[in-house]
Amino acid sequence: MDPHQLRNLYGPDVLRARLEREGVERTTLSFYRYVRLAEVEVLRHVLYQEWEKLGVLGRIYISQEGINAQVSLPTADLAAFRANLDDREAFRDVPWKIAVEDDGKSFLKLTIKVRKKIVADGLADDAFDVTNVGTHLDAATFNRKMEEGALVIDMRNNYECLIGHFEGAYLPKADTFRGAIEEVVGMLIARVQGCEGARATDVNLQPSHPPTLALSEPEILLYCTGGIRCEKASAYLKHHGYNKVNQLHGGIIDYARQLKAEGLKSKYLGQNFVFDERLAERITDDVVSTCMQCDAPCDRIGNCHEATCNMLLVQCEACAQKYADCCSPSCREIHQLPMETQRAWRKGRSTRSTRTKAINDPEGLRRRIREEEELLALNGTLHPELSKFTSKIIPSS
Fold first, then answer.
1. Residues 148, 103 within the same domain
2. What are the residues whose beta carbons fall under 8 Å from the beta carbon of 86, sequence distance 6 or more?
């Protein structure tokens, strides 16, 4: 088959309608494995053909270093999918992590991409031993070590931590993995050496001699969504001379499964951010965040519906209705225009979320909203340039 045909050819509305008509129970699961793969482009095309026949939807990255997959498939075909994986030695017995909450609509299409890395970590793998990883811990041991005072570190991006995290965890402010790991190393240096002024930018990322650590070196507990980022993070920290490094096996997803299976108390609070249509799955009823627009307790996360914004934000139901699922009056005004006018206005404009994924200054956003509402009341529009595209602007509500 022509490789150019081994991809999705339909828009989201068509795909969403098709999924609605499907009418079968689906299971969302994820897995990864660091393993040497050959002829990756050929493998990509073969997997696409085989998995499409099984009704698999999802986002899969493969590279010479392995596979990283988040998929949804008909529950009735789980055994066939397991057999398909096990037929390849590289994927045989790869552990699955089943989603905590699943409405069957986590993915709309099948996407398999060939990448240089299965996680975009920004690290030079030849600068440290990526196989020298931390100790993998199950949920019960992770909980116990937390109670014993170990240092818990969230290895996810700042916007993932917004709606859920472990009790007392260090939450990086960075919105990329590279930024987060640099920040964590800087924090550890400041903690161990007692140097409050140490910054991530002070850290030599490829030291010829790892720092000599004090006797007070902390025991470290790393966690992330499914465990894959902790593989690199733990090896990186060990490269920097930290020896007491542990990581939550299977990440938050498998932690939740173990809690249920073993009747353990959750030390994770709130929701788990996921990279699919659901955006989040609830682990506990705790609400650890507030609406970025009105500051009310809330952990509902979504994207601004204005296409050139698309920024992630925490937004309560009342504000979602008030701002038409947008982050601001400015975005709301554009979003409520006829689609033809929106397209004309968007032409040549870049999308904000390609630079920054989430809003990280809620107070700044609230100030911006107040200023925009005042201007809107005064002028009737926040976009006078729209007169070039249409003579009739739908008023904002």
1. no
2. 92, 93
Give yes or no for a contact between 318 and 297, defined as CB atoms under 8 angstroms apart: no
The phi, psi pair for 75, rounded to 5°, reads -55, -35
Does one domain contain both 153 and 248?
yes
**Amino acid type, 259:** L
Q: Is 309 a catalytic residue?
A: no
Task: Report d(CA 374, CA 382) in Å as an integer.
Answer: 10
DSSP string covering 32-43, please?
EEE---SSHHHH
Q: What is the token pair recorded at 260?
A: 């249920």
| Catalytic residue (choose from 161, 224, 291, 327) | 224
Predicted structure pTM score? 0.85
Q: Specify the pLDDT at position 323.
A: 98
| Domain total of the chain | 3
Q: Pseudo-torsion of CA 266, 271, 273, 279, nearest 10°?
A: 140
Tokens 């550890």 belong to: 188
Which residues span the domain enclosing 333? 301-388
Which residues sit opposite 248 in a β-bridge?
137
Residue-wise pLDDT for 158-177, tens only, equals 999 999 999 999 999 998 89
Tell whether 155 and 255 lie within a shared domain.
Answer: yes
